[in-house]
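Re: zinc ion structure - here you go.
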Amino acid sequence: MQDAADLADDPRWRRLWDKPWSCSVCGETHRGLIDLACGKPAQWPGAEDKAPNSALDLGGNFLSEDFCVLEGQHFFVRAVIELPILGGGNRQFGFGVWSTLSRENFLRYLAAFDSGEQDGLGPWFGWFSNRLEGYPDTLNLKCQVHPVSGRKRPRVVLEPTDHPLAVEQHHGISFDRLLEIHALNGHDIRISLSD
Ligand SMILES: [Zn+2]
């Protein structure tokens, strides 16, 4: 982790956490960071109409909050990529994303899903399955999928390359860059944090 000024000295950072603020674009009120998430893998061709997890169909096309299957051949799980925030203590920024799994590992994940006990599983190889705004193409970056117990989304860890998203995951993301990423995703909160 590179050196970074302590964000406790940044009035915008303090404003973010001190009291609720409103996003100037969508008007939503938040306290702290907004979670960003992709509702489906980039490869999913249709709308984000989600079926319940219990309706999972391994043989065709399927999308729910946690699982996706394409043509009975490509298997995806909803995960989260965490980026440590430079100067933010232990705060991490989490972006909801999708990764592929092999059919075998997808079935292992499914078998343990309802029990919520998944610490003994993985990590498994996957291909990162979203294009994130503000980065050179992120689709199909190599990653490891780490299942997490307690009904939490698995964590995606990118192969440590010089891709900017991998660099930010392994070395941290600056607060300014984080605000830029939020703006690119429809939540420009920079004005709101200076009120
Ligand atoms: Zn917003």
